[in-house]
Design goal:
By secondary structure, the protein is α+β, with helices and mostly antiparallel strands. The protein has eleven helices and twelve strands.
C-alpha cells in the first residue's frame, strides 16, 4: 500500500510495478551545501512511545553503513538522485545527497534543492482544517454536504472521514479520462471542481466509515472547506497560518507550474506512451490540496516534529493539544503495523507522511520515542519491483538506524 499523492491510473492505495530507469551513480555523497544552515527547532519533547527502542548513535561506522545502503538501493532501483537527512537530539545527525539532480548535465543532487513533495501536501491541508476546528468554524463530524454541494453521500460523509481516508468516494486520479487529459498535456491547469467532476461520475465504493481507502478526492473537498470557512485561498491560508508560524520560508503552494531555483529535474514513466519523461515543468494543479506543494530538506526537517507533535519550533502550539490527540488516533489499515489518522500515518512508530507525483517522491517522518526525524527526497517516482523508491530508501535507512522501527510500507498490486 502506498500513502502517496496522485499516482496516474493507480491510486495512492494501489501501485503498479513499473520498469526501472538505470542511470550512473555519482561517485561520492555530498554533505550539507555551503551556506545552508541546519534548521533549528525548540519543540517540546512528546511523551515517549512505548513501542520499543529508539535510534542507534550515528557514529562514523553507522554513517558508512548508511552510505552503502543508500547507494545499493539507488543502484538496484535506478534512482537518479536522493537526499537523506536524519536528526536526533543526542545521537548525532546525518545529511547526505547522492547521484544527480539532472541527468542532462550531470549536476549533482545537493541538500539545498527544492523538490515537489506530493502527498505531504495533505498534512498541510489537514492542519489547516484542524486549526479551523480549534477556531470553532467547523466540526470534524460535520457532513461535507454542509460546505460543498453535489458530493455523493455528502449528507453523511463527515470531515473526519475525509481526513482519515474512510469516505468511500472514488479517487479522481483513477479516472481514465482524467489520465488521458493530464498525460496529453501535462502543463494544463485543473480547477478543484474539474477534479471533483472526474470523481463524482463514479458511484461511491462503500458506505462512509466502513473501511480505509486512500483517495485524493477527499483532500480536494477539504481544501474547499478551508477556503470557504477561512475566507482565504488555500495557498494563502497555509502560508499565513502554517508555514510562516513554523518559519518554513522555503515551502510553497504553487499556483501553477512555477518551481523555485535551484530545483531537481524529475523523472517519471507515468506518461501517455509509457516512456520516461522530464517533469519539472509539469503543472501540479491536478494535485492541488492533495499533492501540489514544494519544499526543501531543511524545511521538512522542521515540519516533521511540528506536524507530529502539534507544536511550533517556538514552543507554541500549531494545533491544540486536544485536537492533536484526535489527529494521532491512527486506526489500522490493511497493512500490519501501519495506521492512518487525520492526514497523517503511523508506520512502525514513525509518524508523518510520504508523497509521490510524476517525477518526485518524498518521505517526512518523526519517531517520538527517540525524538528523531527522517526526511528522504528523490527525483523519480518510477517503481522498482512494485515498490516505491521512497519506501525502498526509507526501509534501508531505518533497518540500520532504528531496527525496532523499520519503515516498511509495502505496495499492493493495482486492481487494473
Amino acid at each position: 500500500m502506498s500513502y502517496t499523492s496522485a499516482r496516474l491510473r493507480r491510486g495512492a492505495a494501489a501501485v503498479v510495478a513499473a520498469g526501472t530507469l538505470m542511470v550512473p551513480l555519482a561517485a561520492a555523497p555530498v554533505d550539507a551545501a555551503p551556506g545552508v544552515a541546519p534548521a533549528a527547532h525548540a519543540t517540546a519533547p512528546p511523551s515517549p512511545s512505548p513501542s520499543g527502542p529508539g535510534v542507534r548513535p550515528l557514529t562514523p561506522a553507522v554513517t558508512r553503513q548508511l552510505d552503502g545502503a543508500v547507494r545499493n538501493v539507488m543502484r538496484e532501483a535506478g534512482i537518479p538522485g536522493v537526499t537523506v537527512g536524519i536528526w536526533t537530539p543526542d545521537q548525532g545527525s546525518y545529511v547526505r545527497s547522492f547521484g544527480v539532480a539532472d541527468k542532462s548535465d550531470g549536476r549533482p543532487m545537493t541538500p539545498d534543492l527544492y523538490l515537489r513533495i506530493g502527498s505531504e501536501t495533505k498534512t498541510f491541508t489537514v492542519t489547516a482544517l484542524l486549526q479551523l476546528v480549534d477556531q470553532g468554524r467547523v466540526d470534524l463530524d460535520d457532513p461535507i454536504g454542509r460546505y460543498v454541494s453535489g458530493v455523493p453521500n455528502g449528507d453523511v460523509i463527515t470531515l473526519r472521514q475525509l481526513a482519515g481516508m474512510r469516505s468511500g468516494l472514488f479517487d479522481y486520479s483513477e479516472d481514465d479520462d482524467f489520465f488521458k487529459a493530464l498525460t496529453s498535456d501535462p502543463q494544463r491547469s485543473f480547477t478543484p471542481r474539474q477534479l471533483l467532476d472526474y470523481s463524482f461520475r463514479h458511484p461511491v465504493l462503500f458506505p462512509p466509515g466502513e473501511k480505509f481507502s486512500y483517495c485524493n478526492t477527499n483532500l480536494i473537498l477539504l481544501g474547499l472547506v478551508v477556503e470557504r470557512q477561512s475566507g482565504l485561498p488555500l495557498a494563502d491560508y497555509i502560508r499565513q497560518r502554517v508555514l510562516d508560524p513554523a518559519g518554513m520560508r522555503h515551502t510553497l503552494f504553487p499556483s501553477g507550474a512555477e518551481f523555485p531555483e535551484p530545483h531537481a529535474q524529475g523523472y517519471t514513466d507515468q506518461t501517455a506512451d509509457g516512456r520516461v519523461a522530464d517533469t519539472a515543468d509539469w503543472n501540479p494543479s491536478w494535485g492541488w490540496a492533495a499533492g501540489a506543494m514544494i519544499s526543501t530538506l531543511d524545511d521538512l526537517r522542521v515540519w516533521a516534529p511540528t506536524v507530529a507533535t502539534g507544536r511550533l519550533p517556538s514552543g507554541g502550539r500549531l494545533i491544540s493539544a486536544a485536537t492533536q490527540k484526535e489527529r494521532l488516533i491512527t486506526p489500522a489499515t490493511p497493512i500490519p503495523g501501519a495506521g492512518y489518522g487525520l492526514g497523517i500515518f503511523d508506520v512502525q512508530g514513525w509518524i508523518g507522511h510520504n508523497g509521490s507525483l510524476p517525477g518526485y517522491e518524498s518521505l517526512t517522518v518523526y519517531l517520538p520515542s527517540a525524538r528523531a526525524t527522517l526526511v528522504v527526497l528523490l527525483n523519480t517516482d518510477i517503481d522498482h519491483a512494485g515498490q516505491e523508491p521512497s519506501t525502498l530508501v526509507g526501509e534501508a535507512v531505518t533497518k540500520i538506524v532504528s531496527p525496532g522501527h523499520v519503515f516498511d510500507l509495502p505496495a499492493e498490486p493495482a486492481a487494473r
